[in-house]
Amino acid sequence: MSSNIFELNDVSYAYAGKFPALDGVNLVVRPGEKVAIIGANGTGKSTLLHLLDGLVFPDHGDVLAFGEPLREVSLCEVEAAHRFRRRVGLVFQNADIQLFCPSVREDIAFGPLQLGVDEEEVLHRLDAVAGILAIGHLLDRVPHQLSIGEKRRVAIASVLAIDPEVYLFDEPTAGLDPSTVRQVIDFILKANKRGKTIITATHDLHIAGEIADTVHVFGRNRRIERSGTPESVLSDTAFLEKHNLVHSHQHRHDGSSHTHTHRPTELHG
């Protein structure tokens, strides 16, 4: 049996069977690895995470999770589904998808309770994750009344309470202020130091170098165009520009002009 966390072999997927999202993807994720999936919007990053989380299944090709085929029929069995859900947790880009209970406290407790964790242990985990993510003051709040950053931390807490081996993050810093971005990055790094495997889909190149050992770049063809260390990939400006991850911008100063590149999240006047 393979020791890899995930293996994808020639995986393709199309929504409703006719809207291509992934096309011939090959990928290996090893235990304890930090992986960044980068690419412009519409290149399949979120779909890949949904596939790794067993929310969708390939039309073609094979997905192995923990050395075993990840198939819809196997996750229809309650025990097998619970076993997989204890090991893999997804933090959605839109936290409102993840938060649906009347209070933050109930949202955090929901996952472990559904997976059969003892109520006393759930309470212990609830207190622990509230402390780690500094959301103790939010526990009795209604989730939809929280700020974007608060919702993101609660969504992370709901996954942390399950204590999975693998964290999947979909654009975890999108729309957040710099302080909250730093908190999210620190959480990712600390989780990895505890042995967790981290897979992050993002188009924010500013964080990719910090949260990844390996970067995979998805192109408009919805497959991986390049893989490598953050240093080797992020330093290739021509490649990034070709794949719409940086863009050229022209400025005029004192009658002369110059052109330089900006990453998508950079601001300029």
TrEMBL record:
<dbReference type="GO" id="GO:0043190">
    <property type="term" value="C:ATP-binding cassette (ABC) transporter complex"/>
</dbReference>
<keyword id="KW-1003">Cell membrane</keyword>
<dbReference type="Pfam" id="PF00005">
    <property type="entry name" value="ABC_tran"/>
</dbReference>
<feature type="region of interest" description="Disordered">
    <location>
        <begin position="247"/>
        <end position="269"/>
    </location>
</feature>
<dbReference type="InterPro" id="IPR003593">
    <property type="entry name" value="AAA+_ATPase"/>
</dbReference>
<dbReference type="InterPro" id="IPR003439">
    <property type="entry name" value="ABC_transporter-like_ATP-bd"/>
</dbReference>
<feature type="compositionally biased region" description="Basic and acidic residues">
    <location>
        <begin position="253"/>
        <end position="269"/>
    </location>
</feature>
<dbReference type="GO" id="GO:0016887">
    <property type="term" value="F:ATP hydrolysis activity"/>
</dbReference>
<keyword id="KW-0547">Nucleotide-binding</keyword>
<keyword id="KW-1278">Translocase</keyword>
<feature type="domain" description="ABC transporter">
    <location>
        <begin position="6"/>
        <end position="246"/>
    </location>
</feature>
<dbReference type="GO" id="GO:0005524">
    <property type="term" value="F:ATP binding"/>
</dbReference>
<dbReference type="InterPro" id="IPR015856">
    <property type="entry name" value="ABC_transpr_CbiO/EcfA_su"/>
</dbReference>
<keyword id="KW-0067">ATP-binding</keyword>
<keyword id="KW-0813">Transport</keyword>
<dbReference type="InterPro" id="IPR050095">
    <property type="entry name" value="ECF_ABC_transporter_ATP-bd"/>
</dbReference>
<comment type="similarity">
    <text>Belongs to the ABC transporter superfamily.</text>
</comment>
<dbReference type="GO" id="GO:0042626">
    <property type="term" value="F:ATPase-coupled transmembrane transporter activity"/>
</dbReference>
<keyword id="KW-0472">Membrane</keyword>
<dbReference type="InterPro" id="IPR027417">
    <property type="entry name" value="P-loop_NTPase"/>
</dbReference>
<protein>
    <submittedName>
        <fullName>ATPase</fullName>
    </submittedName>
</protein>
